[in-house]
Amino acid sequence: MRFLHTADWQLGMTRHFLAGDAQPRYSAARRDAVAGLNALAKEVGAEFVVVAGDVFEHNQLAPQVIGQSLEAMRAIGIPVFLLPGNHDPLDASSVYTSALFTAECPDNVVVLDRAGVREVRPGLQIVAAPWRSKAPTSDLVCEVLEPLSQADVTRVLVAHGGVDVLDPDRDKPSVIRLTELDHAVNSGVIHYVALGDKHSLTQVGNSGRVWYSGSPEVTNFDDVEQDPGHVLVVDIDESDPRRPVTVEARRVGRWRFVTLHNHVDTSRDIADLDMNLDLMSDKERTVVRLALTGSLTVTDRATLDACLDRYARLFAWLGLWERHTDLAVIPADGEFSNLGIGGFAAAAVDELVATARAGRDGSAVDAQAALALLLRLTDRGAA
């Protein structure tokens, strides 16, 4: 038996830094990753798909988002089992009970809205642990496992949330205890655990049967999400009483959110940064966050600004990570002596230079920006 394990689609997600057509393209990519499961399912012969929580970004979504999302799920063509998670719990405002969802939900889509066992077909069961609020007061997985005993059926547990060995807040009442999962797996009560909530592909424990699939399309920068963009192809050998499991990760994501840390002190450093940005592929689907440190002359800062302006037009988004950027701009001796200006204008430039050298307060920063702009306007800071 073969199926696809995915999670954290978070359809309807917006990223505040995406402007212009980048946000619609990103949203479309998330839907395309869902609809594209049809091709993967046909290729590998998958029987069904489980989505381990956070199908939607939240419960209050525009009708267009719901309608387009359901069409993407319809395109998958095989049964799709949706688990409500912390972003889209089964509370009073649940998207799953909305008039639009219930009216337009495709026949191949099933919401796992009841905790416990659901029969998929003879000999195959899904054990579901849906969220009914954003802050459960108990371990939902432990509750659904407690009444179960070993039986001559294949069982797939579909759950959402942090596992204690990976979650920094192990005292949360909703945290999933790995000892409970391992006991269920080792005793043959459960044969595979499909988890959602962690957006990076992650195996949990040593059994080889407990996995986070991660989000099929990136949702955060690579210092937070190390390995997003996958769907898991899960095989369970039902002919063997032990029901051995094989898991294969397939990359489906196309976007990247990249963080670059660079030290820039010279024009050579800026040229290296320029080359690195130029060599990056798929710029229109790449988001770049720059953490830059160093000390630059005003001329070099103007060159850097021109470089960043150019690539900001090419990437889906490119900008500075302000909290981790520390650039000192110090006018060099003679840097403004041959601009060909005199009188009041020359005196104003001298005053700006003095202010720029005085420190890093607001007036110094403004003076540095003014001088950089002056150089750019005179073509001295062209990239």
From TrEMBL:
Residues 1-174 form the Calcineurin-like phosphoesterase domain. Keywords: Exonuclease, Hydrolase, Nuclease. InterPro entries: Calcineurin-like_PHP (IPR004843), DNA_Repair-Maintenance_Comp (IPR050535), Metallo-depent_PP-like (IPR029052), Mre11_N (IPR041796), UCP033093_metalloPase (IPR014577). The keyword Nuclease applies. The keyword Nuclease applies. GO terms for molecular function: exonuclease activity. Belongs to the SbcD family. This is Nuclease SbcCD subunit D. The lineage of its organism: Bacteria, Bacillati, Actinomycetota, Actinomycetes, Mycobacteriales.
